[in-house]
């Protein structure tokens, strides 16, 4: 048992922590980083839900808010670190919203954005 543990520790040291495969092989990332990004999207969903003043009035404003959240939460050198992640996120929003054109955020579209954020978080959690 001691040798198995030693081999595992050496392997982690040489090759890094094991990656969690997210989706159908589209991208993978360490579980700790996946949880961090999942929590970020849960936070974005909460902001959408509590935006009573309707500051996020359309998807263009949401896009700016989304980009700002990512810039604050993720180091610049980590952008693009996981090929396929950005495409997955963009596709999830586009699928949920029925495209990428600017739309008003109202009682019909707000739940779609919230659901997109929740889908992203669940996928990153590995569910």
| Chain-averaged pLDDT | 82
Strand order of the largest sheet: 1-2
Please state roughly what percent of the residues sit in beta strands, choosing from under 5%, 5-15%, 15-25%, 25-35%, 35-45% or over 45%: 5-15%
Major beta sheet, specifics? 2 strands, antiparallel
Helix percent band: 55-70%
Q: Overall 3D geometry?
A: globular
Number of strands: 2
Parts with pLDDT < 50 across at least 5 consecutive residues? 1-25
Helix-strand string: HEEHHHH
Q: Please, how many helices?
A: 5
Query: What number of domains?
Result: 1
Structural class, judged by helices and strands? mainly alpha
Compute the gyration radius: what is it? 17 Å
In terms of quaternary structure, the protein is single chain
How many angstroms does the end-to-end distance come to?
31 Å
Structure description:
With 127 residues, this protein is mainly alpha-helical. The protein has one domain. The chain has 5 helices and 2 strands; from the N terminus they run αββαααα. It has a two-stranded antiparallel sheet with strand order 1-2. α2 (31-50) packs antiparallel against α5 and α4 (85-97) runs antiparallel to α5 (110-124). It is globular and about 35 Å long. The relative contact order is 0.17.
């Amino acid at each position: 048992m001691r040798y198995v543990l030693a081999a595992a520790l050496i392997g982690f040291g040489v090759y890094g922590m094991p990656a969690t495969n997210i989706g159908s092989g589209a991208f993978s990332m360490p579980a700790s980083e996946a949880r961090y990004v999942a929590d970020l999207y849960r936070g974005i969903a909460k902001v959408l839900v509590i935006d009573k003043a309707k500051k996020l009035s359309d998807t263009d404003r949401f896009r700016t808010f989304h980009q700002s959240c990512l810039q604050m939460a993720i180091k610049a050198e980590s952008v693009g670190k996981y090929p396929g992640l950005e495409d997955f996120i963009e596709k999830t929003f586009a699928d949920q919203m029925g495209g990428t054109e600017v739309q008003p955020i109202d009682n019909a579209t707000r739940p779609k954005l919230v659901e997109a954020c929740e889908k992203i978080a669940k996928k990153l959690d590995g569910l």
